[in-house]
Write a structure and sequence with these properties.
Elements (H helix, E strand, L loop, with lengths): L3 H13 L2 H5 L26 H6 L3 E10 L12 H9 L5 H7 L10 H12 L4 E12 L4 E10 L3 E10 L2 E10 L8 E8 L4 E9 L8 E9 L2 E10 L8 E18 L2 E24 L2 E18 L13 E14 L2 E5 L7 E5 L2 E10 L9 E15 L2 E14 L2 E18 L2 E13 L7 E3 L13 E3 L1 E12 L8 E15 L12 E12 L7 E9 L9 E8 L3
Parallel strand pairs: 1-3
Antiparallel strand pairs: 2-3, 4-5, 5-6, 6-7, 7-8, 8-9, 9-10, 10-11, 11-12, 12-13, 13-16, 14-15, 16-17, 17-18, 18-19, 19-20, 20-23, 21-22, 23-24, 24-25, 25-26, 26-27
């Protein structure tokens, strides 16, 4: 996906920079953001570490906040009229917005874990590039430590045109998105979008700290060419690992046409109306011995009704309407284990990589007595675990499942797993491998398992293979450069190989296509100055198996959260 706003900034930079800058080689890039101290240290002064202060029982004194501009005009490379204008036009994040994200307050006992967690939370906000939370000064007489919080803003007003092409599927959009409205950390978005399924006009507003509290409010409306979507969510989440309670609820009402595919072409379609409502409350004893254990209970209403889609080929039999109203309970175990790295799934940005074990599960029971269409036991589950088994080698495993037991049999059941491996050869190279598998059992008629370009089989059309099970293997040699053109984005490259297949009957009744493979190379552009927070992918792939009626060579342009 390419944004008009980024393109305009890049063009302006070309005008502003001297010719020698265009001819220069790779620019020096800091491996991590190290802002100047708010309170400079005296010569030879060494402050105790947060862990040492915690052991002494120190308390948090003043919280000192500094918000840095998008561009550092003290750096000669960023001291020109384009960057100064961008800083002047941008609303800086307000200090109190930063403080609202912290998991500690003045007067609290100093906790090293909370300082590290607050830094991660701030770094995860799309309107901030990076954050540093550290001890500013310490008074041993009062046993009080002042804490400084430094953050760097990014450009958060993103007007422009978006475009991506994946497996022959074009997506276009024109939008105005502000991720940090008036510096208050709120999101407002107005957008027009068009893809292979529909055209939509969207409006969304998100307030992550309602009235300065931990409550979050999100509301959105979309006018679709085949229906509409309305959504509102009021939630107080477990905002930290030591949070003791959570509560909230949401309402979702959606109508649209769902199309099923085979060999990349539409087969049939059905009009789907979905209504969902949920209320829940959660409780926890907080972080104990490196683990957080949480429990949640709630009530949920889930209804889907089906009708023939005007002007579309209907399925042989319309799916049966479904309605489930049920109480549910959930459990979650979360290990506190993170590592701070660069050049992992991003380019040139500080990343907080999870290296622990996390699992959660929910279970609910619906019956006719509560208005459900069927008696059913509904379940979800997720398990993720990751480890460094050598300083340069890391593995992770993510699994998830959902479905229901109805009339003594599994229905709409899905089990998926992904194993990933990272071999960090050096700061500029990583070998990455992943294997993904999915099994399904008696999917609802409106659901479909697909495998194609959007699922990672880059050389093949959108939704090309269908079936009841799938597998995908990806190998990548990733290269991270220190090239930082115009101080706007980092550049990387990749050489890749994908192979995958599906099993089971297809909608068209054909035999499965078997293993399909592709190979190619691509460029990666890591965004460092705007709130898009994504990596632009430009991939050149070649399908090693023939695709009837299509070229084997594909050029794909899209954005992704990672490399």
């Amino acid at each position: 996906m390419l944004r008009g706003g980024i393109a305009a900034t890049l063009l302006a930079s070309l005008v502003a920079l001297p010719p020698t800058a265009l001819a220069a080689g790779p620019l020096d890039v800091d491996t991590g953001w190290n802002p100047p101290r708010i309170v400079p240290l005296a010569r030879g002064e060494v402050l105790p570490t947060p862990a040492e202060l915690q052991a002494r029982g120190a308390r948090v004194g003043r919280i000192l906040v500094r918000v840095y501009d998008i561009f550092d005009t003290a750096d000669p490379r960023e001291d020109n009229w384009v960057y100064r204008t961008a800083n002047a036009l941008h609303y800086k994040t307000r200090d109190w917005v930063v403080v609202n994200q912290l998991t500690f307050r003045s007067g609290d006992r100093l906790d090293a874990q909370r300082l590290a967690e607050s830094e991660r939370i701030l770094r995860n906000r799309r309107y901030l590039y990076d954050a540093v939370v550290r001890v500013a000064r310490y008074d041993p007489k009062t046993n009080v430590a002042d804490i400084e919080v430094s953050v760097r803003d990014v450009w958060t007003l993103n007007p422009g045109i978006s475009y991506s092409n994946t497996g022959g599927n074009e997506k276009k959009a024109f939008e105005i998105e502000e991720l940090n409205l008036l510096g208050r950390g709120q999101k407002l978005q107005v957008a027009w979008r068009k893809n292979v399924d529909r055209t939509s006009k969207d409006l969304q507003w998100v307030n992550p700290n309602l009235f300065g509290s931990r409550w979050q409010l999100e509301t959105s409306y979309a006018d679709l060419s085949d229906g509409q979507t309305r959504y509102v969510n009021l939630d107080r989440p477990f905002y930290s690992l030591d949070a003791r309670w959570a509560a909230g609820g949401y309402a979702y009402d959606d109508q649209r046409v769902e199309t099923r595919y085979d060999l990349g072409s539409p087969v049939d379609a059905v009009d789907v109306r979905t209504r969902r409502f949920d209320l829940h409350y959660g409780w926890s004893k907080g972080l104990q011995d490196g683990w957080t254990r949480r429990w949640t209970a709630g009530l949920r209403y889930d209804q889907e009704t089906f009708a023939a889609a005007p002007g579309q080929v209907p399925p042989a039999t319309l799916p049966e309407d479904r309605k489930f109203a049920y109480p549910w309970v959930g459990a979650e175990w979360y290990q506190d284990a993170y590592s701070k790295v660069t050049n992992h799934d991003q380019i040139g940005r500080t990343e907080d990589v999870y290296l622990g074990t996390h699992w959660q599960a929910t279970l609910g029971y619906a019956n006719n007595g509560m208005g459900s269409s069927h008696d059913a036991l509904l379940f979800t589950g997720n398990l993720s675990s990751a480890r460094d088994y050598r300083p340069d080698l890391q593995w992770s495993l993510d699994t998830s499942t959902h479905g229901r037991i109805q009339s003594g049999a599994l229905r709409d059941a899905v089990l998926s797993a992904q194993a990933r491996h990272y071999w960090r050869i050096d700061r500029h190279q990583t070998f990455y491998a992943s294997a993904t598998g999915t099994l399904t059992d008696r999917l609802d008629p409106d659901k479909q398992l697909v495998l194609g370009a959007e699922e990672g089989l880059r050389g093949y059309p959108l939704r090309y293979q269908t079936g009841t099970a799938s597998a995908l293997v990806t190998l990548e040699q990733r290269m991270y450069t220190d090239w930082y053109p115009f101080r706007l984005f980092f550049v990387g490259a990749v050489v890749f190989f994908d192979t995958g297949r599906t099993w089971g009957p297809t909608l068209g009744g054909e035999a499965p296509a078997g293993w399909l493979s592709d190979a190619g190379f691509g460029l990666r552009f890591g965004n460092s100055r705007s709130g898009l927070g994504s990596v632009v992918h430009v991939d050149f792939s070649y399908a090693l198996n023939a695709v009837p009626g299509r070229s084997r060579f594909q050029i794909t342009v899209q954005t992704s959260k990672g490399f």
